Amino acid sequence: MRSKVYIETTIPSYLAAKPSRDLLVAAHQQITREWWISRRLSFDLYVSELVLRECNAGNQTLAADRMQLIADVPALILTEEVFQLADALLAIGVMPRKAETDALHLSVATIYDCEYLLTWNCRHLANAEIQREARFLASSKGWAPPLVCTPEELMGVEHEDE
Fold it and tell me: Could you say which architecture CATH assigns to the domain 4-154?
């Protein structure tokens, strides 16, 4: 059985964006493209209603490109349970109130038992301190949060020939 991966909005955004002049962002874009080409078929991918809304916003040409990339990816519903977990994350200060959307992404992936949440958002999602606190809160409520990681961290394992 393949692992479930929740694709957060930064992934289709990096895939559809024009190459950045910022070297770090350009590297992230390239890694994301390599992951999309070489690894995505190894997983069961999911987005949420929230990702669909975010991808459909902004420049309509880029929005159409983002939506095309995730057209065949099932969208998870934002349930009352998702909102409750996000509210709990915000209430105890795991994430700042301005990161409500990020709390929802993490909550969707948690409630739907995704093994991974794939993102380039390292401020509020792929952040070890936030993950530690979120894991503690979620486990106290009986949930197992996903491993939050970047495409670079989910590239697979290379085995040396013996």
Answer: 3-Layer(aba) Sandwich (3.40)
CA distances from 99 to 3, 35, 76, 92 (A): 27, 26, 20, 13
Express each pLDDT in 65-98 by its tens digit.
999 999 999 999 999 999 999 999 999 888 989 9
Cβ contact 37:154 at 8 Å: no
Structure tokens belonging to residue 132: 């530690």
Per domain, the residue ranges of the chain are 4-154
Q: What angle do CA 47, 51, 53 make, to 5 degrees?
A: 135
Q: What are phi and psi of 5, to 5 degrees?
A: -120, 120
Contacts of 86 by beta carbon, 8 Å cutoff, 6+ apart: 100, 103, 104, 106, 107
